[in-house]
Amino acid sequence: MRVIHGIPLAPWTTLNIGGPAASFAELRDAADFPDFVAHTAARADGRTPVCLGGGSNVLVGDAGCSVPVLRMATRGVRILGDRGDGRVLVRVEAGHPLWELVDTTVAEGLIGMEMLAGIPGTTGATPVQNVGAYGQEIADTLVEVTAWDWRAGREVVLDAAACGLGHRTSVFKGSRRWTLLSLLFALRRSPLSAPVGYRSVAEELDVAVGERVPAADAARAVLAVRRRKGMVLDFCDVDRRSVGSVFLSPEVTAAQIEGLRELDAPVNRFPDGSTRVSASWLIRRAGFGLNHPVAKGVRVSSLHYTLVADEGASAASFAEAVDTVLHEVRRRTGVTLTPEIDFIGD
Ligand SMILES: Cc1cc2nc3c(=O)[nH]c(=O)nc-3n(C[C@H](O)[C@H](O)[C@H](O)COP(=O)(O)OP(=O)(O)OC[C@H]3O[C@@H](n4cnc5c(N)ncnc54)[C@H](O)[C@@H]3O)c2cc1C
Question: What's the pLDDT score for residue 13?
């Protein structure tokens, strides 16, 4: 495993923002992980290292990162066989791209991830914020993770319950205690997808909400819907410097729900039982139109109500834009947004 010093982190993130890493290592072979542990013990001064996957949900500080950075680039999917309850166990290395895993499972006739098509990043990062879209989330299929516990100084296996998966959160969110090394999922064998739960996807498929279709068709329809909203990473796209939603759709109280429904706001119930209003609706409502400039080099996307970066953006200006949107949404709607992105660096 090669360690590089002073490498800029910006190119390793989809925002293309961020200063250098004091030390940067890329893990391609899981067998090299003990070398990284030894290297970290020598350099990190008791501080836990930062793990980076595809960099699609992080904002790295302009001053960079003084603790060691590990980029997870291990790959591999193993179909382990039937569990006896109609589900098939699948083990995945943490650096394996999620979109490739979705393609593989669909091609193998396994369902449970088809609606996650088009989400960038690595599989190892998916439990961190219990990645989800269009009615499916990682909590539906995750059985356990194998991780390095930096506090205990040993490898541990955490079952799904111990991962504390909630709406875009888990015990891993905001904590550097664990580095996820591999994941075990249980997927159902079926030629048909899960019921299509979203109107936009059903319309794309020309079926009614609740119908089931071939899983590959469902994945293609989700991709088409996401592409129209600029929610697929496309390197030719003007909105390509993106971290997706930036903000969580906030939970709202019964009193707020009534007022929001009168305004025709999209208010939905989520699998964890919470009721939430769409963050993008709140951003638009607060006066941020498409392409609206918010801070130096940071604007609202041309297709969707989220923040994207352009020439001249820095971590400071992106953070300023996040703050501006947060304050303006609170002032205009009374609802408080929470950033979904993770801040990395000094
Ligand atoms: C265009 C676009 C669309 C998106 N759409 C969605 C969506 O529909 N739904 C959704 O939930 N998210 C979405 N996202 C956000 C993002 O893709 C997901 O959060 C994804 O899981 C991040 O994966 P990553 O490998 O890029 O993680 P990174 O951005 O590299 O890291 C994210 C966090 O996870 C930690 N981490 C990464 N790997 C590990 C590991 N192996 N062990 C421990 N910690 C780790 C990092 O330290 C960091 O805190 C979108 C992003 C973009 C750019």
Answer: 98
